[in-house]
Automatic annotation (TrEMBL):
Name this polypeptide is given: Calcineurin-like phosphoesterase domain-containing protein
Region of interest: Disordered: 26-131, 542-612
Compositional bias per record (Low complexity), positions renumbered to this chain: 67-77, 569-604
The Calcineurin-like phosphoesterase domain, residue ranges: 207-395
GO molecular-function term, one example from the UniProt record: hydrolase activity
Gene3D superfamilies associated with the record: 3.60.21.10
Lineage: Bacteria, Bacillati, Actinomycetota, Actinomycetes, Micrococcales
InterPro entries on file: Calcineurin-like_PHP, Metallo-depent_PP-like, STPP_CPPED1
Database matches in Pfam families: Metallophos
Compositionally biased spans, kind Basic and acidic residues: 54-64
Domain of life: Bacteria
Amino acid composition bias (Basic residues), ranges on this chain: 44-53, 78-94
Organism: Serinibacter arcticus
Length: 612
């Protein structure tokens, strides 16, 4: 074991004793394990040096001579015939070298040194541990400023710039100007899962297909040249009917001539913990392999038979790229992606993957994710072309901005509504690149809300969302942001209206508002929810307020298991069949075969109580 101590300036001769020990790794196995310096430039010094320094401080005689049993740090046994003055000089050299490196003696006391040397090498108040911690703290502070990570310090993943420029609404912009819309389909897994047995029988379609049909129908009016799917296409990778529903929905975009990119999420692969590979994604590739996705407009290249894809699309006279990487991308994917970027050095890039940034439990505050940090280190930070990242996976919506190696902003957006009603309520994101106003505007809309049956509409439904990171605007000077790699970036000056506002208007057509909240007291004691398979349903309210009297009974609506309060006396201590006076009631155990059921399907109570 070694300890790290900070190097201090001192004459070369004074440092020779300890330096000999550091170089003599043949004598000390601990030095062979810590040969050289650590990343912060500290010198490795063995614990043996500290031990000998203490002994030298306490085992000298009155004349300053070392006792014969002491070995100097260099490993040579002291011999008595060497004169006292020579030993005294060696002792001083040892102490000065030890003190110059901040070592301390027994009990935390600094090793003493002659007064003359003490003036040249003032006391070092910090211990070796404190020196290292302080250096790491300073390195981490510099790393945050520069946007890099110091060895041993926490990743500098807190965005170097805050998202203070964001506004809470994306609809406050210029009336007309140059702009286009990029559509994002977040996790569609539950749409695919419940398509065949729930959505199609009730609606004849599902939210996934309604989304893609709406995008095709409004692509021209909202100037949508491209659609990005961020993964988790299905919920259960081994269920063929889910892939059938997903393939049908994405086929709508193909039939409508609308370009798209798609990628596998963790629910689309066999082993979620494995790196991406063809063998780990058999059913995904049976539906979205290169043979299919290469027919999409703007196809550039694919990797691992379509797990990673690259497309270009035209918007306002400029070329953009969509680069889609699979869940838990293999290391070879980075090399492929870098090759694609190198082949298109002057094209702004939108990077998508299933999980890049996370979100905290409040579902609005951004959080780090290990793969997103790996992606940043390996690909995003060093390629100024990548200005926007999109992902899902984590439940909620959030955004953060980071600074890349070129000193420019990278906008990172997360969208995932799978835990809303109907597996996401049909919500999708529309990202408007507004060149006229100099902003990146995000809207969250749902073409599914107006398709819902009246009995399925709730008071929380809305065709568009206005919460934090659901409708917002980020200031972006696109020409300035792209100047480092595309100095001639100049979108056409078309006279287009406010696309975000227009999207709200379109999805709101036919919407009459959510029904008012209606809470009514039951009209009779029999007016309650009945759940199939219920074992016992104790109804309170027939008794007077207060503790249930001894020998009192709480009836069971099913009729098989009434609840009793049993009397208690000193000769009858409380057991599993009798309660203390402080308890209101006790439950008679159900038969061993009985089980509670939580089926969500209401039905009338049976004429007779269930038998098991």
């Amino acid at each position: 074991m070694v300890q790290l101590v900070r190097r201090r300036a001192q004459p070369a001769r004074l440092g020779r004793v300890l330096l000999r020990a550091a170089a003599d790794d043949r004598r000390h196995p601990s030095l062979r394990r810590a040969r050289g310096r650590d990343p912060l430039g500290h010198r490795a010094v063995p614990r043996r040096a500290r031990r000998l320094a203490r002994r030298a401080d306490h085992d000298g005689d009155a004349r300053g001579r070392l006792r014969p049993a002491v070995r100097p740090v260099g490993g040579v046994r002291a011999r008595p015939r060497h004169g006292g003055p020579r030993r005294a000089r060696g002792r001083r050299r040892l102490h000065d070298a030890v003190r110059a490196r901040g070592l301390r003696g027994r009990g935390g006391r600094p090793v003493s040194a002659p007064a003359a040397r003490r003036r040249q090498t003032p006391d070092h108040p910090r211990t070796a541990r404190g020196t290292r911690v302080g250096a790491l703290g300073a390195a981490a502070a510099v790393a945050v400023t520069l946007g890099v990570t110091a060895p041993g310090a926490p990743p500098a993943t807190a965005a170097p710039i805050a998202t203070t420029g964001a506004t809470t609404s994306a609809v406050a912009q210029a009336e007309s100007g140059s702009r286009f819309t990029l559509a994002v389909l977040p996790d569609t897994q539950f749409y695919s899962r419940y398509s065949a047995d729930q959505f199609v029988p009730r609606y004849g379609t599902d939210p996934f297909q309604v989304q893609t049909e709406w995008l095709v129908e409004n692509a021209a009016e909202l100037n949508i040249p491209f659609v990005v799917h961020v993964g988790d296409v299905v919920d259960r990778e081994n269920q063929a009917q889910e892939w059938t529903a997903a393939s049908r929905a994405m086929g709508v975009l193909e039939d409508g001539g609308l370009g798209y990119s798609i990628l596998p999420g963790n629910h689309d692969v066999v082993d979620q913990g494995a790196r991406s590979s063809v063998g780990n994604s058999p059913r995904y590739l049976s539906n979205f392999a290169t043979s299919r996705v290469s027919a999409n407009p703007g196809f550039v290249d694919s990797f691992q038979n379509g797990l990673g894809t690259a497309y270009t699309f035209e918007a306002q006279g400029e070329t953009f790229m969509s680069l889609a990487l699979p869940w838990n991308a293999d290391q070879s994917v980075y090399a492929w992606a870098q090759g694609v970027l190198d082949a298109h050095p002057d094209v702004p890039v939108v990077l998508s993957s299933h999980a890049i940034i996370g979100v905290q439990s409040d579902q609005i505050t951004p959080a780090d994710f290990w793969f997103g940090q790996e992606l940043w280190d390996r690909l995003i930070a060093g390629n100024d072309q990548i200005f926007l990242t999109l992902n899902g996976h984590f439940h909620g919506a959030t955004q953060r901005t980071r600074i890349n190696d070129a000193g420019n902003e990278v906008y990172q957006i997360l969208t995932d509504y799978q835990m809303a009603a109907h597996g996401g309520n049909g919500y999708l994101s529309l990202i408007e690149m507004d060149f006229a106003s100099g902003s990146l505007d995000v809207e969250t809309v749902s073409p599914w809300i107006t398709k819902k049956l009246p009995e399925d509409v709730t008071r929380d439904d809305s065709p568009y969302l206005t919460g934090q990171w659901q409708s917002f605007s980020l200031p972006v000077d696109f020409a300035d942001r792209f100047a480092g790699f595309a100095p001639d970036f100049a979108p056409t000056d078309d006279d287009l209206g406010n696309l975000s506002q227009r999207a709200r208007e379109i999805v709101s057509q036919g919407w009459e508002g959510a029904p008012p909240e209606a809470i009514e007291a039951p009209g009779a004691r029999e007016d309650h929810v009945a759940v199939e398979g219920t074992v016992a349903h104790w109804r309170f309210g027939d008794q007077a307020e207060g503790p249930v009297p001894e020998n009192g009974t709480i009836t069971d609506a099913v009729g098989a298991s009434p609840m009793h309060r049993l009397p208690w006396t000193r000769r009858t201590p409380p057991t599993s069949s009798a309660t203390s006076p402080s308890r209101a009631a006790t439950c008679t155990p159900s038969p061993p075969t009985a089980r509670r059921s939580a089926s969500p399907t209401p039905r009338a109570w049976p004429d007779a109580p269930p038998t098991s």
